[in-house]
Amino acid sequence: MARIYIRELFRFRTTILSHPTIVSSTPNISSSSSFCTSTGDRRISSCNSRLAVLKSCRNMRHLSQIQAYLIICGLFRRPFVASKVLKLSAGFADVDYTILIFRSIDLPDTVCVNAVIKAYSVSSVAHQAPVFYFEMLRNGFLCNSFTFPPLFSCCRKMGCVEYGEKFHGQAIKNGVDSVLDVQNSMIHMYGCCGAIECAEKVFGEMSVRDLVSWNSITDAYANLGHLDVAHRLFDVMPDRNVISWNIMIGGYLKGGNPGCALKLFREMAKAGVRGGETTIVSVLTACRRSARLKEGRSVHGVLIRTFLKSNLFLDTSLIDMYSKCARVDIARVIYDRMTKRNIVCWNAMILGHCIHGNPEDGLKLFEEMVAGIQSEDGVINTEKGIKRIEGQGLIPDEITFIGVLCACARQELLAEGRNYYSQMIDTFHIKPNFAHYWCMANLFVGAGLVQEAEEILRRMPEEGEDLSWESSFWAGLLSSCRFQGEVFLGEKIATYLIESEPRNLSYYRLLLNVYAVAGRWEDVVRVKEMMKNRGIKQMPGCSLADLKQIVHEFKLGEKWKEGVEVNTVTGELLQS
Question: Alpha helices of 413-541 — where are they, by DSSP H?
Fold first, then answer.
């Protein structure tokens, strides 16, 4: 059932046999019952000694070896032993392996079923947990209070309040809806799914509340943007911990108010509460958004003085903060000192050079990034370099090429820009978005190729195509990569495109961004009024009201499990 390495197996046997049961050399002449009792004790002792290896398990590879050893010893057939292996596997979030073990248990009990549900809740296939739960119910499963918190966690990850309500009903039916952990998980689930009334109802009906209850309801209001209510709850909390402060700081950041987030951080420090990694990242984000270099340096100093261990997320946040505050030189020092980097970190530094610093340094860094996936003849192998291991390169994503094309536009590198654009599409199979078109249009205009700029903007995806609203705002953020000369040129192109296709939302968005990067807010209002009169509706989440305060969130890396989300404010870039 599992692969076993002989050396590891021998080590386990040695560990167990290093403490043998001591048996007297004198013949035992007691009664047969005493002999049976002694034999049974020795068997129990031997079994416990063999199971002790489970405590040393640290990863899935180790677990598979231990399981193989238990199979050879004949212990895995016992439900008690199998359930222990099952719980370990669930803790490592390996759903497939956990299900395999579960199916091998003849009569799985409630603990086993709960372990599988927990494995689903921490995996990427949380949507399978409800199916599994109802399948077990049909097989006679009797749930308990430990069943529902991971189920509500699955509903939260899916964003499915309908399933959450079903499980709420199941909790009531089984009489566990008044258990504190179940109530807390319900509040968190309803809050994350946007059902604030349901979360409020559960919170109001609780006879006993703990700190988790208060944090959950506060987080629910903060996530929905009701910061006034969230702050009132925060003020009346009977007790607070670092999570309570992180919720409010993160809420103000999400609500576009970095000033309040920094104020809360100062209050947190005065209260003697020591922040963790999440706190520092949030505060650095606030400093970056409001271009407060002095406070950002102060936070960096706190990070050093408190000996908080440096890691990928903290270093990437520092790189991004210093870059946005026009200190790309400090960002590069931090980058060079990092021993481990992923696509998020590379993108942050490349964007720092290309948008806020020296574009040539950004292009050099990009070439260094892809060097590990190039053969000796210069051919790029995209099958290699998924991970950077011992000099391997990384495959760039759409964010990487936004920085690269921006650098080409700033330096007016026409040939290089064309080459990178073709490489992005043909070699890396990246579909261009609004930002790529915008950078290429700037590149063409800088070279005097106005007609080509018009043509590439004409090829932008229309509203019905796969165009993320995040990417569409890059044009307003790339203030250092704008149409050279007077605004009238960009205005002329956008107006021409609108006249050719008056129902194409992307062209109106282009014109709005042309005015936004030029600071012509009266024209922004005029275009919005024109769109309203013509019945042109903007995409959900794309409201251009008060562009000075718009917050654009984008991913520096494709895989959220490896990366962190970085937020950028239009106003910051317009001031750079």
Answer: 414-422, 434-446, 450-458, 469-472, 474-477, 487-500, 505-517, 521-534
Q: How far apart are CA 110 and CA 168, in angstroms?
A: 19
Which strand (E) or helix (H) includes residue 567?
Answer: strand 565-569
The four Cα atoms 167, 172, 177, 178 give a dihedral, to 10 degrees, of 170
Q: What is the pLDDT of residues 370-410, one digit of tens each?
A: 887 765 555 555 554 444 433 346 789 888 998 999 899 88
Tokens of residue 2, six digits: 């599992």
Instruction: Note the pLDDT of residue 29.
Output: 40
Distance CA 44, CA 12 (A): 18
**How far apart are the C-alpha atoms of 101 and 326, rounded to whole Å?**
55
pLDDT, one tens digit per residue, over 295-324 is: 899 989 888 887 677 788 899 999 999 988
| pTM of structure | 0.70
Entry field: residues in the chain: 576
Q: In the prediction, which pLDDT does 507 show?
A: 74
Closest listed residue to residue 254, CA positions, set 295, 214, 221: 221
**Predicted local distance difference test score (pLDDT) of residue 465:** 42
Contacts of 225 (CB under 8 A, 6+ apart): 254, 255
Which CB contacts under 8 angstroms, 24+ apart, belong to 313-319? 313/277, 313/281, 313/564, 314/277, 314/280, 314/281, 315/345, 316/344, 316/345, 316/348, 316/556, 316/564, 316/566, 317/280, 317/281, 317/284, 317/285, 317/564, 318/284, 319/345, 319/348, 319/349, 319/352
Whether residue 282 contacts residue 248, with contact meaning beta carbons closer than 8 Å, is answered with no
Distance CA 288, CA 283 (A): 9
SS3 374: strand
Angle of the 487-500 helix axis to the 450-458 helix axis, nearest 10: 40
Q: Residue 21 carries which DSSP code?
A: P
Angle CA 275–276–277, to nearest 5: 135
d(Cα 521, Cα 34) in Å, to the nearest integer?
95
Instruction: Please list the residues that pair with 555 across neighbouring strands.
Output: 565
Please choose, from the candidates 370, 389, 391, 366, the residue with its C-alpha nearest in 3D space to the C-alpha of residue 381.
370
- The 3-state DSSP class for residue 565 equals strand
Q: How many CB atoms lie within 10 A of CB 502?
A: 11
Query: What six digits make up the tokens of 382?
Result: 């995209």
Instruction: Give me the phi and psi of 2, to 5 degrees please.
Output: -140, 150
Q: How far is residue 294's CA from residue 429's CA, in Å, rounded to a whole number?
A: 41
Q: Is 172 exposed, middle or buried (0-12, 13-18, 19+ CB in 10 A)?
A: exposed
Rounded CA separation 405/403 (Å): 6
Whole-number Å distance between alpha carbons of 374 and 392: 9
How many C-beta atoms lie closer than 10 Å to residue 213's C-beta? 19
Which residues share a beta bridge with 566?
A: 554
Q: DSSP labels for 449-475?
A: -HHHHHHHHHTS--TTSS--HHHHTHH
